[in-house]
Model the fold of this input.
Amino acid sequence: AQSVTQLGSHVSVSEGALVLLRCNYSSSVPPYLFWYVQYPNQGLQLLLKYTSAATLVKGINGFEAEFKKSETSFHLTKPSAHMSDAAEYFCAVSRNAGGTSYGKLTFGQGTILTVHP
Amino acid sequence: DAGITQSPRHKVTETGTPVTLRCHQTENHRYMYWYRQDPGHGLRLIHYSYGVKDTDKGEVSDGYSVSRSKTEDFLLTLESATSSQTSVYFCAINPSGAGNTQYFGPGTRLTVL
Done:
């Protein structure tokens, strides 16, 4: 079984400040890890993903995440927040077990990011 | 744009009535999924499909059934809707399974009165 925990359902930062959204996972096999973003009344959009290549993954809109196996973490960061970053962010895990996982995702509970001027 | 449409986009129905939601893709991808999104729970997998007529249950499948008679369409049916099924439903597609990006549709907001 696999699971994802996102620490903090709400995170508030000032414009220009560091964004840090925390994600810890549990998986019995090597994982694939994803961060998605959801803007109000829209579907989910991929920010970045880890698929066992480089542990530091760069995504869209200046976001990046680092896979730390020893800490079972995949935290999302952005050096300088912008007002347009306000959204809900989801961390997700998928089993790296060949074709048997069918690409199914297990999501965390989500973190709402608020950016103050 | 991943070529995914969902219909209807909004629906209000009454307890006990059957409801069918449709997901349509234009990319002929093999894998399709249905999720529900509820505050505090993120997205939870209802059912998924790995080919025409090949479907299986996810973690919250009770009260739901699915069908996939064509590659491009994946239908989710609530046989007898209950208020606990009020949610936002998302369809997703995946070109080739494990490790690949899932692309999400715009969602269907369902309210069961």
